[in-house]
Specification:
3-stranded mixed β-sheet; 490 residues; elongated; mainly alpha; 19 helices; 46% helix; 10% strand
Length: 490
């Protein structure tokens, strides 16, 4: 048992050493992001971001050492990809690399990328290092999601999600890091030919998740250390419109209530929406919304505006009615490390990898579309027509009604209860609440911050569920999943 524990500790030691190097690299990237946005150098960054925070407890010398060490690991990764750091961790060479003096790490990066012809180093890299890294790419595909901020992406045209198995993408990423030196030599395709072929459709593992599992485990919410996308300034735009929700014309249900007529009306309105006027900017949206209403009512019922998400990158867009009530709230500020896993988590939770494939609905015998309402229903009163109202008044309320035989009263009918879909798909529900926990928390924080009045109204129900149950999608009590569904007007 002692040997088994030692073996486990040794593997943990390799993982920890690798992630220590990754976090030092993240510090360098973060400093470069701040430098591009503010023009500050390391001393200014330390004074503004670290020195003023006593809880950090890090001296300027230590900060400089960490930045220097992180730059050395970045140089090694630029030469042999992120997998070169895995080799260093496995061989126990992290401290040796961190202790390098002068530009030795830069020379080592050049040597890894393009060793001299006929040299022993070229033979070593070609025969051992490159094939080992090629195998690691296949057995453990990694991705560095959101390691760069928007400022770095715009300046160097680097992807926000860097596929570590793609050497060309990896090289572009690490070449963009300011090392106060010439960029590394071009990679020798002859030496690294075994690593050129794409890995394929294997699921990439984000480095952030490894970092969280190793250092924090389940006792602390997941917060990716490599991502500074969340710290980029998200602009909150509020546009007040002249739409009057209290106008009699706006309080009328415009769609026909007859089923067939509703279907035709919905189809016509879809075509109108698809051909709606495209908005080109936020200022253009303000002008078009100002001209869209007359006396608080839409001038033309068939007129629509198409708002492309490209005009609100990393923004919160809030539209308000004439009386200040909420018309719509759209956010494109979802952190990319959450966004990148939305689809794969959904397919995994529903255990259906081909769920989102395209199907022609005009063909007979096609798959049935599915909708799951994983909800708490909250119906406190009975339904009745106006004619029956008088007779219902004379009767006792349902909560006081008891059976002739027995002493029990069915109070459960008038307090919130879970839907039949939730009862039928409990395992899917539990999986979804786990894999999307960070997404739901992001939505909750967003609403509590920007939509306080609406948040408090929703919480009135979410906070008093029977048995002190807590909704995982607070402040909402329902999680609805529509797969390949286009709804009618309702």
């Amino acid at each position: 048992s002692v040997v088994a524990r030692c073996r486990g500790i040794a593997s943990k030691d390799i993982c920890t050493n690798f992630l220590v190097m990754v976090n030092y690299m993240a510090l360098v990237c973060k400093c470069q992001s701040i430098r591009l946005k503010t023009g500050l150098h390391l001393k200014g960054i330390y004074d503004r971001e670290i020195k003023s925070r006593p809880l950090c407890g890090v001296s300027y010398r230590t900060f400089l050492d960490w930045h220097s060490v992180g730059s050395k690991f970045i140089a090694i990764a630029s030469g042999g990809s992120i997998y070169a750091l895995v080799l260093i961790a496995g061989l126990g060479l992290r401290v040796s690399i961190a202790s390098m003096v002068g530009p030795t790490h830069l020379h080592l990066a050049d040597m890894l990328r393009s060793p001299p012809k006929g040299s022993l180093q070229r033979q070593l890299i070609t025969a051992f290092i490159a094939p080992t890294i090629a195998r690691m790419r296949l057995t453990f595909p990694l991705t560095m999601a959101s390691m760069f901020s928007q400022a770095l992406i715009e300046r160097y045209a680097v992807s926000r999600n860097v596929d570590c198995t793609d050497l060309s993408a990896s090289d572009r990423f690490f070449d963009a890091i300011i090392q106060n030196a010439f960029v590394p030599l071009p990679r020798s395709l002859q030496v690294w030919r075994v690593c050129i072929a794409p890995v394929g459709d294997l699921t990439r593992v984000p480095l952030q998740s490894l970092n969280h599992e190793e250092f924090y485990g389940s006792h602390r919410p997941y917060s990716p250390p490599l991502s500074d996308a969340e710290e980029d300034e998200i602009e909150h735009i509020i546009i007040k419109t002249s739409y009057d929700p209290l106008s009699p014309q706006n309080k009328r249900f415009k769609a026909p209530r007859d089923r067939d007529a509703n279907t035709k009306w919905t189809a016509v309105q879809r075509l109108c929406a698809a051909s709606g006027e495209r908005v080109t900017s936020i200022d253009d949206l303000r002008k078009k919304l100002a001209a869209m209403y007359q006396a608080g009512v839409k001038k033309s019922p068939e007129s629509y505006l198409r708002i492309p998400m490209s005009i609100i990158p990393n923004h919160h867009l809030e539209l308000r009615n004439k009386d200040g009530s909420l018309m719509a709230f759209v956010s494109t500020g979802l952190p990319s490390h959450i966004r990148s896993l939305l689809e794969v988590n959904l397919l995994a939770a529903l255990e259906h990898p081909h769920l989102l494939e395209a199907h022609d609905t005009r063909l007979s015998g096609g798959p049935q579309f599915q909708a799951m309402h994983l909800s708490w229903y909250n119906r406190h009163c009975t339904k009745a027509s106006y004619k029956l109202l008088a007779s219902l008044i004379t009767k006792c309320s349902q909560c006081l009604r008891s059976r002739k035989v027995g002493m029990r009263t069915n109070h459960g009918q008038v307090i919130p209860y879970i839907s039949s879909d939730l009862q039928q798909h409990q395992r899917i529900y539990e999986t979804l609440t786990r894999v999307y926990a960070e997404l739901f928390e992001w939505v909750r924080t967003l609403m509590e911050t920007y939509l306080q009045e609406e948040f408090e109204m929703l919480m009135e129900v979410a906070s008093i569920l029977p048995g002190n149950c807590t909704s995982p999608v607070t402040p909402f009590v329902s999680l609805v999943i529509n797969i390949n569904v286009s709804t009618k007007a309702h």
